[in-house]
Design goal:
The complex is a heterodimer of chains A (393) and B (356). Chain A has 393 residues and is α/β, with parallel strands linked by helices. Chain A has 15 helices and seven strands. Chain B starts with 14 loop residues before the first strand and ends in a 7-residue tail after the last helix. The chains are: A alpha/beta (393), B alpha/beta (356). At the A-B interface, helix 14 and helix 15 of A face helix 13 of B. Bound molecules: thiamine diphosphate and magnesium ion (MG). Chain B: Pfam families: Transket_pyr, Transketolase_C.
Chain lengths: 393, 356
């Protein structure tokens, strides 16, 4: 049971805690699932007291997003194979987590994502080529985080979780009702920053939700070498925040569990940790060869659990998804794929003077000198320059 | 699943063509075979054999107690290695990339570097921290940092960086044999470069010294720079990834009638003032080349030491060709950032040739 005074004061929480001995902070006995891998609704009402099954129109919209997400992953991987991009960490198979991450947020909320979360970042409204600029190698980023309330995807593992805590803390100080959703992988939970972020979030009782996409691997290292806790969600109780585990390939369950954590945080209920069970269907990146450390049989076991197939079966059976909608989604996905192809096939040249422009708000005398040196070098070599004579701001 | 190959060192003898990465594997292998206290760990070093395959086959050969994956936490890796070194183990740990060693910075700077001094020499830490570093591989951000300066600046750390296949074996072997902690910087653009080496000769360096760290047949390479190309007009001082462009520049200059000597520093700490000063005095002109940003860098240290010791032999100011003072750029811009042959030769041209 969390001891945080603000938590106990909150009327909703007091009610939740009544009669509990701290179990409230522990995850469910098994991962929350609303739609089985076969596409049928789970009929037990085990979770009904805590979570609301999403409305059909929400699930239909979510299915459309899954189709887009899948197409982004397929197209990006194809473009890597064709040499149009150096690297793409794919979220193939994890699209339900990606879609739930943005569908549960308001426009004014914030998302802190990792390198694997391009689909979630695009769900914040980031335009395709803005999202792919860093992967194309032009610059470290392609968008302004403030425009979308989406931080740049972060590579040094777990470091972004503390930034998420900071944005949420600032929102609290400024009296905004912003919720921050912070993503990380199973491997990242071993880093010290993961611990620090969860503890800060709990102690300051701030509106941040941590979503761990447990895709079973950190590159080649399986979960069992990261943690022998009963589950990653169990870690939450150690910080005094609730933890929950959810079938990460079940969009309905994700929307319900994540949605409830986000709204609870928005209403002053404090942080939460959600662990989504999913699977990295592809290699870590194209530079990796997963056959070196896991069997084809293991991967094959996850194919029938696919998040798209399952939701499609459910929606078709429930009469929610008809051929017109399916066609609409497919057309949108193809259009997006074409945008990616066109964008990445375009040969872009980055401006070398950009190296000096943004290091400080005002370039130092040393940077101005180095900028002029490079401009002179390029001029001597007869290279056409976008910026002439190191014209820094 | 393909089983990782078991290394058979007996198959690899005599004259062999090796990659830089494989030379490192062999150094690890030979050290582990010679001394059961040598233990390798890090992220993805076990089953996968490391993202650059440097530890490939070690788990299969020596078992998962001698080469193993840790939970994903660099501070944990270096902190645990410190404790193990206190208690009789000689850990060789891998940081996956330069920038991913930063979570371990606290352990490296506050403990690894200071332990010997704090304990008046009662506790020495024979541990090696291997760090792939540098750019030139089209890598995305945080995968191309030249972080050697942070470590070289920290008293108590030995810092080595090989620039060729043979030195990959020699320097890593000497690092593992050292009683002091070594930060071992591996230029990642060299991992798949190849050279033919005489493995028997390399191994003979250590064969008769029994337990590594004991009596040696040859002096350690720690603290030893190498002249990698003779020349009489000017000296290029380089290390790790910048040795290749220095040699290429010297080859081009030779065609233009200028004889450039090239020095490979190899051991950033301790620094071989003797060899390097003698080399500089022999030519009187110097360009220092490094990939790292130049400001307050290893290149600055080299330039300062050369100037202090060789001032009266110098015909021109010591010049530096380094990376710009900017975060390592995105892949499409790295060609503008990296010190290349043209930039090196421009610097050579500015060594006041008319005035001597
Ligand atoms: C601090 C740090 N250490 C190491 C790495 C190298 N690295 C990149 S991704 C990765 C595995 C991460 O696994 P996980 O957190 O499970 O995320 P996933 O890739 O499975 O989505 C590693 C070790 C890094 N990016 N940052
Ligand atoms: Mg993972």
């Amino acid at each position: 049971m969390t001891n945080h005074p603000e938590f106990l004061e909150h009327p909703g929480n007091a009610a939740l805690l009544a009669g509990h001995q701290g179990e409230y902070l522990l995850p469910s006995a098994t991962a929350v699932q609303f739609i089985s891998a076969e596409g049928t609704a789970i009929t037990t009402d085990k979770y009904k007291e805590c979570y609301v099954f999403p409305a059909p129109e929400i699930l239909l919209e979510g299915y459309g997003e899954l189709v887009l997400g899948r197409r982004i992953n397929e197209q990006a991987s194809a473009l890597v194979r064709q040499g149009r991009m150096a690297v793409y960490p794919s979220s193939y198979g994890q699209e339900a987590c990606q879609v739930a991450a943005f569908m549960t947020l308001h426009r004014s909320d914030w998302l802190f994502a990792t390198y694997r979360d391009t689909v979630a970042v695009m769900g914040r409204g980031v335009k395709p080529m803005e999202a792919f600029e860093s992967l194309r190698g032009d610059w470290h980023s392609g968008f302004d985080p403030h425009q979308y309330n989406a931080a740049l995807p972060t590579t040094p593992l777990a470091t972004q979780l503390l930034h998420a805590v900071g944005v949420a803390h600032a929102a609290k100080l400024r009296g905004e009702d912003t919720v921050v959703l912070a993503l990380c992988g199973d491997g990242a939970t071993s880093e010290g920053d993961f611990h620090e972020a969860l503890n800060f979030a709990a102690v300051f009782h701030i509106p941040v939700v941590f979503l761990v996409q447990n895709n079973q691997y950190a590159i080649s290292v399986p979960l069992i070498h990261q943690s022998v806790a009963p589950s990653l969600a169990h870690k939450a109780i150690g910080y005094g925040m609730p933890g929950e585990r959810v079938d990460g390939n079940d969009l309905a369950a994700l929307l319900a569990v994540l949605g409830s954590a986000v709204e609870r945080a928005r209403n002053g209920g404090g942080p939460a940790l959600v662990e989504a069970h999913t699977y990295r269907m592809e290699s870590h990146t194209n530079a990796d060869d997963a056959t070196r450390y896991r069997s084809a049989e293991e991967v094959a076991q996850w194919v029938p659990k696919d998040p798209l197939v399952r939701l499609k079966k459910y929606l078709v059976h429930a009469g929610v998804l008809g051929s017109a909608d399916a066609e609409r989604f497919a057309v949108a996905a193809e259009a997006l794929a074409k945008t990616l192809r066109d964008g990445l096939n375009e040969r872009t040249e980055a401006d070398p003077q950009d190296m000096f422009r943004f290091v400080y708000s005002e370039p130092t005398p040393q940077l101005r000198e180095q900028s002029r040196m490079l401009a002179a070098e390029l001029a001597a070599a007869g290279v056409a320059q976008t910026s002439v004579d190191g014209d820094l701001p | 699943m393909t089983a990782a190959p078991v290394l058979n060192p007996l198959e690899l003898t005599g004259i062999q063509e090796l990659t830089f990465a494989k030379a490192l594997t062999l150094a690890l292998h030979d050290a582990m075979a010679a001394d059961p206290a040598v233990v390798v760990f890090g992220e993805d070093v076990g089953t996968l054999g490391g993202v650059f395959r440097v530890t490939e086959g070690l788990t299969a050969t020596f078992g998962s107690e001698r080469c193993f994956d840790t939970p994903l936490a660099e501070s944990g890796i270096v902190g645990m290695a410190t404790g193990m070194a206190i208690n009789g183990i000689r850990p060789v740990v891998e940081m996956q990339f330069d920038a991913f060693a930063y979570p371990a910075f606290e352990q490296i700077v506050s403990h690894v570097a200071k332990m010997g001094n704090r304990t008046r020499g009662h506790v020495r830490l024979p541990l090696v921290i291997r760090i792939p570093y540098g750019g030139g591989i089209g890598g995305v951000e945080h995968h191309c940092d030249s972080s050697e300066g942070y470590y070289a600046h920290t008293p108590g750390l030995t810092v080595l960086t090989p620039s060729n296949v043979q030195d990959a074996y020699v320097l890593l072997s000497d690092a593992i044999a050292s009683p002091d902690p070594v930060v071992f910087m591996e230029p990642k653009k060299l991992y798949f470069s190849k050279a033919t080496v005489d493995l028997d000769a390399l191994r003979a360096r250590y064969a008769s010294s029994g337990e590594r760290g004991g009596a040696r047949t040859v002096p350690s390479s720690i603290g030893q720079a190498a002249i990698v190309r003779e020349g009489s007009d000017a000296t290029l001082i380089a290390y790790g990834p910048s040795v290749a462009p220095a040699l290429a520049a010297a080859a081009t200059a030779a065609e233009e009638g200028r004889s450039l000597q090239v020095v490979d520093v190899r051991s950033l700490v301790p620094f071989d003032d003797e060899t390097i000063s003698a080399a500089v005095r022999s030519t009187g002109r110097v360009v220092v080349i490094a990939e790292a940003s130049g400001f307050a860098s290893m290149a600055s240290e080299i330039a300062a030491r050369v100037q202090e010791r060789c001032f009266h032999s110098l015909a021109a100011p010591v010049l530096r060709v380094t990376g710009f003072d900017v975060p390592y750029p995105a892949p499409k811009l790295e060609k503008y950032y990296l010190p290349g042959v043209d930039r090196i030769l421009d610097a050579v041209d500015r060594l006041q040739w008319g005035q001597s």
